[in-house]
């Protein structure tokens, strides 16, 4: 529990209303109860906010000031709410430092003193883990892997030889990093799997979702640049390079040797063919299929992916055509 | 082994044939051997049944009675066959009650006396597990999770803080329940991940496939209602609510804040965009992409999803158009 | 480190250049440094090879002999490079034989003397594991599973009752083999899950990617024939049969009771509906959706999948139609 005034001060906000209001939780406008603080990050929600049972609100400072209920005005209401959740003690807690009795940490691994290693983890020879990083349970870390500072590795994640995590990287449960890529050549008796001797590099602030897989390079490196975010069940093939702040939604599949620029957004279940090159700030619609070379600042949709506007026009044209055909078919009837 | 007459009695069937026939196994009509019982759940299979090597059959009571080989007639032949598989001892066995020596169960966890916890499981503080529930090996259960009665949790499943399973829930291997959703807002240095303080609720008889992920709500709850079934590798985003008996086939992706009604069937690899609202008894074809508001009782197909009939008409119209173009192209040739 | 002459001899190549050249690593043409050997498997790369910093090259013997830098000529350069990677000690090492102290191996399991079982594995009663096979950490092997010779099972893989691996099979991290299929029938209170009493058989040289799932048959068997390769996050339903050397790329979904012929290639994220029958040597494009009966030697694309050429013609016809519509729309403007 905290006072509204303290919370406002903590996030550098402008308070409109009684500073002594007790805040016990956070919630959405619709679900909020009497002790809750709720966010209003767009003026579309002002109506909902007027009717909400929330005790107070955290409001985008650009929203028109006609709103009368107790609220904190800030520039980034959802970022400020994040901080308030921490102050209220509602965020998930970092595990305590220490190596669980059942964790198997090789004698040659080098761990900072405040690292947390959970039960049934296996940490192999030569692994390095930096300050304030934490492995949950059943994590498997192979020989020579390097993990930076303040990283979080969820249960069951697998980090194979040749993987490097820089700082503040988060790895989802059962994610698999650094397995050899899906590369085969025809051999005399059947496909021959090629050795993959390359690496995987996840730079600062990369997040990987549950069950996602990032394959290691054949030679060289598969690289996810600073602040790349992957949702759950995403596949990234060998030798891909993804630019800063690009986001891949759930179940996206990226084949081998793909280049993706910075600040791209790839919608759920989209697929990107091998050797595709995508420029900066490209948006790929959900379920789209991309190949070839895509220039910067495009908004794509469909399989094969084309400009969203063109894809929409094609949809409309096709619908009209089918209706005309249908009408013609009807008029043909005896 | 059992006698055909006993099996018929056990499932309340009507026996046509010698009750003393020995039944040692069950199989399909094509694969059956001389001791097997095989199902005939549609009259399309009567021909196959006449030629089958099975010793006897279990037949839908609505099928015409001209069939001469030994058989049991019942209303739900496949449900009855399920029971017979159990009687014959062919179904997978529940593990014996008890906590494996290597399972780490926190002192404040409350487990019913006949619960089974397999090797290398980790059960955190305050967890509650009800009568006859079983965790296989390597299961990770976080603080405060509640598991009802007769639940089955397969190897490597991860149940994060805030997850509740009601009764007879089954969780597939490596499924991940309750991880924070994929919610980011732009921040000064890159995307900022929003804390997700909400929950996941799986009601009675929910089944989750292997490797599937159900994210916890930002506030509030992600809810799968009674008898919802998810196949393998399905992704359900934060704050979704799925209605009773709806089924999501393999690799379906459901983005955040989606509402799905009761008795829906979503085909494999279909995707549902965030904030979509789907009415009751809607069928979504495989690989379709759904967004917006879908009224009840629709049958959808395609990306973007439209009435299946309209989608089919469009396919036909397009094919004709391409053939005409092709013909025109040919006639244009010199 | 090795001498170029030794490496050439080891792979039966023809050496052009000084045999005493020291080789310390392998790399791609672009990334190679001064001690590296780099592959030239197509004459398109000869220009890159001329400018590469590599010390030497391994070149397809069919490529025109005008290339002047030190190189080894062989019939299968990538297969030969695989061997060279092993000679240089750069390939990932097999784990040492032996059963880790923390591995729980049932007294009735039968393991060849040189089997390796990693930490926190669980191997149940009656399991058989052949010569030179290795389980990594956290692997779960249920009652009666049979594993052949020289198999590799990655961390966290789950092998359920009824699974058989023949020889040289590789199972990716967190793959789940042999869970009951997604088979339900309507019951009085909701969908009833059917018992699946069948098996999964992976023949010689089958490879399964990380996080993939292969369900066991209802009765009978789900069978992946010799040299079938699955990439990551692939789903194969109950009772499927996949022919020799067929390859399924990342995130492919195969529903129940599908037959796939030999030497097929299924592109990433493609889906195959239940009871589909696909002939030999069929190519299915990425994201395509296949159903019905597909004759041998087809090249398919789209949803629903049709001949790639027809699908391409349709794309072109549709684009033209939309442009015409757009032009008409413009001329209609006042």
- The number of domains of chain A is 2
What is the oligomer described by this structure?
A: homotrimer
> How far from one another are the termini of chain A?
77 Å
Biggest protein-protein interface?
A: B-C, 59 and 51 residues
Count of DSSP strands of chain A: 41
Characterization of this structure:
The structure is a homotrimer of 334-residue chains. Chain A contains 4 helices and 41 strands. With 334 residues, chain A is of the alpha/beta class. The first copy, chain A, is flat. Residues 330-334 of chain A have low confidence and may be disordered. At the B-C interface, strand 4, helix 3 and helix 4 of B face strand 21, strand 23 and helix 4 of C.
Quick take:
By secondary structure, the first copy, chain A, is of the alpha/beta class. Helix content of chain A is 15%, strand content 31%.
Please give the structural blueprint.
3 copies of one chain form a homotrimer.
Chain A: E1 2-3, H1 4-10, E2 14-16, E3 22-23, E4 25-26, E5 36-40, H2 46-51, E6 56-60, E7 71-74, H3 77-87, E8 98-99, E9 104-105, E10 110-111, E11 116-117, E12 122-123, E13 128-129, E14 134-135, E15 140-141, E16 146-147, E17 152-153, E18 158-159, E19 163-165, E20 170-171, E21 176-180, E22 184-186, E23 191-193, E24 199-202, E25 207-208, E26 213-216, E27 221-224, E28 229-230, E29 235-236, E30 241-242, E31 247-248, E32 253-254, E33 259-260, E34 265-266, E35 271-272, E36 277-278, E37 283-284, E38 289-290, E39 293-294, E40 299-301, E41 306-307, H4 308-332
Parallel strand pairs in A: 4-5, 5-6, 6-7, 8-11, 9-12, 10-13, 11-14, 12-15, 13-16, 14-17, 15-18, 16-19, 17-20, 18-21, 19-24, 20-25, 21-26, 24-27, 26-29, 27-30, 28-31, 29-32, 30-33, 31-34, 32-35, 33-36, 34-37, 35-38, 36-39, 37-40
Antiparallel strand pairs in A: 1-3, 2-7, 22-23, 40-41
């Amino acid at each position: 529990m905290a006072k509204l005034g303290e919370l406002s001060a903590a996030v550098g906000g402008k308070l409109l209303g009684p500073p002594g209001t007790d805040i016990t939780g956070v919630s959405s406008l619709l679900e909020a109860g009497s002790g809750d603080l709720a966010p209003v990050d767009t003026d579309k929600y002002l109506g909902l906010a007027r009717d909400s049972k929330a005790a107070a609100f955290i409001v985008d400072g650009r929203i028109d000031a006609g709103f009368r209920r107790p609220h904190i005005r800030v520039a980034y209401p959802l970022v400020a709410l994040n901080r308030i959740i921490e102050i209220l003690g509602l965020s998930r807690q970092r595990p305590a430092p220490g190596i669980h009795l059942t964790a198997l940490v090789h004698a040659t691994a080098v761990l900072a003193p405040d690292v947390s290693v959970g039960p049934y983890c296996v940490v192999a020879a030569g692994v390095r883990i930096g300050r304030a990083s934490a492995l949950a349970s059943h994590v498997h870390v192979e020989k020579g892997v390097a993990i930076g500072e303040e990283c979080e590795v969820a249960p069951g994640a697998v980090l194979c030889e040749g993987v490097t995590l820089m700082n503040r990287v988060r790895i989802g449960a059962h994610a698999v990093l650094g397995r050899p890529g899906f590369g085969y050549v025809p051999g005399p008796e059947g496909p021959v799997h090629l050795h993959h001797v390359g690496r995987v590099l996840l730079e600062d602030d990369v997040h990987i979702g549950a069950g996602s897989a990032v394959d290691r390079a054949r030679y060289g490196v598969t690289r996810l640049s600073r602040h790349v975010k992957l949702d759950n069940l995403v596949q990234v093939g060998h030798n891909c390079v993804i630019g800063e702040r690009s986001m891949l939604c759930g179940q996206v599949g990226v084949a081998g040797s793909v280049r993706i620029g910075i600040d791209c957004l790839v919608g759920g279940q989209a697929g990107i063919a091998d050797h595709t090159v995508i420029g900066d700030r490209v948006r790929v619609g959900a379920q789209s299929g991309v190949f070839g070379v895509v220039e910067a600042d495009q908004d794509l949709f469909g399989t094969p992916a084309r400009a969203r506007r063109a894809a929409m026009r094609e949809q409309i044209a096709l619908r009209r055509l089918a209706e005309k055909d249908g009408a013609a078919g009807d008029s043909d009837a005896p």
